Structure formats: C-alpha cells, structure tokens
Amino acid sequence: MKKIILKEIYLVNFKGIKEKRIEFGEKETAILGKNATGKSTIFDAFIWLLFGKDQFDRKDFEIIPIENGKRLDRVDAEVSAIIEIDGQEMKLKRVLHQKWVRKRGTSEEVFDGCETLYYINDVPLRAGDYKTKIDEIIDETIFKMITNPSFFLSLNWKEQREQLFRIAGTVSDEQIAATNKDFKDLLDEINGKSMQEFKKEISARKRKLNDDLKFIPAKIDQTVRLMPEKKDYSLIGQELKECDEKIKEVENKIHDKKALMDSYYKEIDAIQREINSIKQKQNQVVFEAERKDQQERFEVEKQNTEIENKIRAAQIQLNNEISHKKQLEKNIESLTAELKIQKNSIDELREKWIQENKKDFDEISENLVCPLFEIVCNDIVANEKFRKNREEARILFFEEKKKKLDRITEKAKEKSLKTAEIEKDVINITKEIEESEKTISEIQKDIDDLTIAFKGITIPEKHIVIPQQIHEWVELQEEIERLNNSMPKFEEIDVTEFAEEKKSLTAKRDLLLKALSEKDLIEKYTNEIALLEEEARMISQQIADIEKKEFTIDAFTKIKIDECENRINRLFEIVKFRLFDRTIDGNEFEVCIATNKQGVPVAATNLAEQINAGIDIINTLSRFYNVSAPIFIDRRESVNSIVNTESQIINLIVSEDSELVVKKTA
C-alpha cells in the first residue's frame, strides 16, 4: 500500500496566519488552540498546496490576509510541505504572487491580479506539470475521501452508492437469474437494456394502458345513449312495401297526363331553338360593328403610347446623364482639393529641405576644458580622445543630415508623382463632362421633337352602336317576330293534385326507411360495445402481465441489492449501509444510508460516532485504493477514542490556548 505521511508544513501569509511551521509525528499529531486560531486553516493550506482548493472544494476563497477589511498589498501567500511517500521525501511549494505593474504614462504601480507559482524540491514547474506530478501521487477525489472523515458522507447518496459498488463489486444479473426461472425469462426479454430502463419502459406502457382503460367505460356509456329504442321492424317493412305500391300508382297517373303535353313541348322547343339561333346572329352583327369602331381607335392609341414610352425612356436617359455629369463635377472638386493639399505638402517639404540644409556642425571648443575649473586640460590622452570623439561626432552629424535630406527629397518626389496623376485625372474628367453636356443636349432635342409629335395626335371618339340602325340586324328581328307568331297555342294540363299525393307518400316512405335504418344502427352500436368490452379485457390482461413483470423486477432488484449490501457491509467494522428502502405504501426504492450496527443513521448519531464512522469508511477506501494519507480530524476533543487505522492522524482540538500548540506522537 502506498503510504503518504505529512512531515512538515510551512505557511506564510496564508489566510489569518502570518508565518507558521509545523512538524508532524509519523503516527499521530495534535494541534490545539482556541477557535479562530487557525487549526482548520492548516488543513485548508495542505489541500490548497496540492489541488488549489480548500477543504470545502472552493477555488475562490480569501488566501492573502485581510486587515481592516482590505487585502494586504504586495504580500505573497505561500504554503510548502515535506511529505514522505513510501519512505521517499518530497518538498512541495505553492505561492500566490501579487503582480504590480507600472502602466505606460503613469508613475505609480497598480495591482494587476495574482499568479500562482509552483515548485517541487525547490525546482519551479509550470501549472500543468505540477498537476501531473500531484496526480501521480494521488487522485484528488480519493485524497479528499481518505483524509476527511466527513467527506464521504457529505457526498450525494448516488455518488456514495457508486463508490460502494466500485469497492465491493456487483453481482451480475446472470448470477441472480440462475436462481429463478422468472428471473431468467425477464433477462431474456430485456435483451441488452438495463433493468432500470426496462422498468421505466414497461411503467410508461402501463400508464398508457391505464389511461386507455379509463376511457372505455365512458365510450360504452356514450354508445348506449346513442342507441335508438327497438321497434317492430317486420311491421315497418310491410308498411314500406304498401307505400311503394301507392307511389307507383300515382306516378303512372302523372305520366299519362304528361304524355299529352310532350307533343306540344317538342314543337315549341324546335321554334325556340331557331329563334335563339337568329338572336346569336344578331349579337354577332352588333359585335362586328363595335369591333370595327374599336380597331380604329386602338391603332391611334397604340401610336400615342409608343411616343409616350419613347419620351419616358429619353427622360430617364436624360436624368441618368445629368446625375453622371454632377458626379463628374464632384470628382473634379475633390481632385482639385486633393491637388491643393499635395502642392502645399511639396512646398512644406521644400522649405523643410532648405532649413535642414542650412544646419551645420556646432563645434563647442577646439580644446578639452575642465568643467570644474574651466581651464584647458593638459592631459594628452584625454585631449586626443576628445578630438577623436569630436571628429566622429562631425562625421555622424553630416551622415544623419544627408539621410534626412534624402528622405525629404524622396517624399517630395512621391508627392510630385501623385500631383501629376491628379492633374491627369482632372483633364480626363473635364473631357468626360464636355461629352456628357453634348449628350444631354442631344437627348433634350429628341424629347422636344417627340413631345411635338405627341401633341399632334388626336384620338377619335368612341361610337355607340345602335342595333336598330343596322340593316342586317333589322331583317333578323323581323324573322324572330314571324317565328313567335307561328308558336302553337294550348291549354296546360294540371297534375298538381297527383304531385301533392306523391309528395305526401314519399315523406311517409322516408320516415319508414329511417325507422328501418335504426335496426342497422342498433346492430352497429351493439357490435361496438362488444368490441370495447373485449378491448377492456385485453388491456386489463396486459396491465396484469406488466404488473407481474414489475413484481419480478422488484424481487430481482431486492435480491441483488441484498447481496450487494452483504458484500459491502462485510468490508466495514462499525458502519452498515442500507441500499434499499420502502415508501409508506410499500413500494421499494433505491437509497444509500450509512447506519451504525443498531441501524441508526450515522447522521442522527453523536459527533464521536460520526467521526469513527468516517474513519471506518476511510480504512476501507484506503485498502481498496491501496493508499493511505493523513487524516485530519476536526473537533477531536469530542471523541474519547477512535477506531484503529493505518493512516497518519492529525487531530484538530479546541483548547484554551490562544496560539496553536503542536503535540507529536512518534
């Protein structure tokens, strides 16, 4: 088993501790002091050194000391420790360093955040390398579980179950199914799904079936209410037969009287068809007269529209050309302004070149003069060095002067080239403006000519065609009058009496047919009720089958959980875990509740029993993960004795000491 021992820890400006070095005993160490003297801070410092968090898993907590409600400036927080891993010592150090920088243009330094520095055996490392090294020593979650007795029981119950199953192993579904045929059939049906997924699936199916079943009685009741009352359908059939015979008799009487009228109607129909044909010819005569008048006006209107379209197109072309000319004029204005700027720049460069060219080397003195006594220096070496430096300064001055003049000349050339390009553009655009003005004049002349032509066109008035003034139409009208006069005269035969009798008999027959149709409706609704009742029986059976599967799943889960509980609880000395519970109405559900041997939840026991339960859990976790680390026991004064453990113990004890007191046990 990998054994991690904390040998020494050193804190500087960490939270409320200005500076503190603590050496630990290999087996057990007690740290005593009043509340707020820094006992828990030692644990926070050790966790921060390893993982950058406190014991409550917080990354953002106040590390640098605070005085009078304000963080101390230019103070670094530091934690270092010597740990022993299987007999090999290693020194770890983490520093929270304040960065202070002087921004450009300011004289004062300002706070620019903090950076974390990492060291192993006094060798600086990058953050990623430091984390990799710590991870090689121990996983963060495992470390917290085996160093803090309360950590495991503070986890979510699902996370606790997951850890317990990891260390105890799980019983396979196949092993449980081998003991019961129903279990084996259940696994065969699940076919690759998890037991939980399958249970949710059939529960959803059962809910839907129950919902469907609820609606069936209402559907049956509604169908019963819609079902008509039963009648003597044989008597109704006889009445219907008698009614049909009477209707046929009345129809024969009507047919005999109407036969006399058919010959008259045929002759009248033939004459009327001939009259209609002549009226169509009349309409065609009027249409041709109107079409001829409309064609004359259409030709004139077409010519008028063509000229209007030409004027409109020419006007658009004119507007576009005017807009183009205005844009060219704006370009001329812009280029003229730019040309003026360029010429002014050339003048400024010329003046700058003249002023720079006038500059000459300023020789301060021919001899080296002492600045203190203001006399010529007699030191030959100093004078020689002075003359040499003066000559070098002269050469450097003229070289720099030439470079400046060359740069000014180069800029002036660039400006001149730019000026020439602008002047060329001005000339070209001026020509474009002249061409545009010519085009505008030509388009305006075309518009004027078209306008004159448009005003000279006169559209003829529309003529109203009067049929009576058309000779051909009048002749056709005379033929219609002749045919109307030849129409045969007859007296209309009255069949109203027979029609009313038939109407009365037909209404009676409809009522009888409706009554007979109710027989089919009753049979239809009876069949529907039978189908609904059968559907209800089938759904009830499906629900019963699902409930049997749910019972089998619950029994399977209970046996599996019981076996898992036995496996898990054999790993602990004083703690037992209950992984299954029941609701008030007897339904089972998954839990994870740590209890003592009497079955009392650990959370409901006293502090001493809770701490010992935590150590018992740590012992099991250490054996499983094959690693031990220092256990920090807070409020150790509440416990008379603790369970045996192979881990190093660090007791945090409340006492009357105003400063921390350390007592080691070898």
- Report the count of strand segments: 15
Which oligomeric state applies?
A: single chain
CATH top level class name of the domain at 1-138 and 629-666: Alpha Beta
Order of helices and strands: EEEHEEEEEEHHHHHHHHHHHEEHEEEE
* CATH superfamily grouping of the domain at 1-138 and 629-666: P-loop containing nucleotide triphosphate hydrolases
Sum up the overall morphology in one term. Answer: flat
What's the CATH architecture of the domain at 1-138 and 629-666? 3-Layer(aba) Sandwich
> Which structural class do the helices and strands define?
alpha+beta
Rounded Rg: 57 Å
Q: If helices are DSSP runs of H or I spanning 4 or more residues, what is the number of helices?
A: 13
Give me the CATH fold name of the domain at 1-138 and 629-666.
Rossmann fold
The N- to C-terminal Cα distance equals: 20 Å
Mean pLDDT figure: 83
Uncertain spans:
none
Which key terms come to mind for this protein?
seven-stranded mixed sheet; 13 helices; four-stranded mixed sheet; Rossmann fold; alpha+beta; 666 residues
